Amino acid sequence: MDHDERRRSITAAAWRLIAARGIDAANMRDIATEAGYTNGALSHYFAGKDEILRTSYEHISEATDRRIAEALGDATGLDALRILCREVMPINEEQLLEARIAASLWPRAMYDEQMAATNRRTMDHWRAQMTVFLEQAREDGSVGDIDVSIVVEQLLNMMMGMQILGVLTPGETSSERQLEMLEQFVAAL
């Protein structure tokens, strides 16, 4: 196993701990045990817990963006917008796991500049993609004369809210309910 593979396995171990027991449970000793290493061995791959958490946060963003890119294919307009939103919303086990981890890390992202930068890049990327898709929908007549920047912010706020509520109140914010909210929002455009 090479250096990058070991970093990924340690990050995956941190993910599992955060998802199962929360960020406070992700101490270096438990991460090492979960990854199958000694506590001291982690220092060969990460400077400390903060670096592991930053890498975990980056990995969530990258994984979501990869999923979006794969799912989009040649889709445009409202079809592409729906795809992007569905890949961010916690509507399956993988996305719910990512939402649990992201929600656990958001408080750190408010104060950790590297994590805040990761968050800004992700949000800026999604804003840009949504803007293109909504402009395409406006051009093909699928939506009316909307304020694209406001609609993008409404969608981002709705998706981030779904991540929080999907984790905290999964019964009320089920995947079916999330999809219904998305479809009603898009239909109103």
UniProtKB/TrEMBL annotation:
Keywords: DNA-binding, Repressor, Transcription, Transcription regulation. Coiled coil: none annotated. This is TetR/AcrR family transcriptional regulator. Residues 27-46 bind DNA. The keyword ATP-binding does not apply. Pfam families: TetR_C_6, TetR_N. The keyword Cell membrane does not apply. Residues 4-64 form the HTH tetR-type domain. The lineage of its organism: Bacteria, Bacillati, Actinomycetota, Actinomycetes, Mycobacteriales. InterPro entries: BetI_C, Homeodomain-like_sf, HTH-type_TetR-like_transc_reg, HTH_TetR, Tet_transcr_reg_TetR-rel_C_sf.
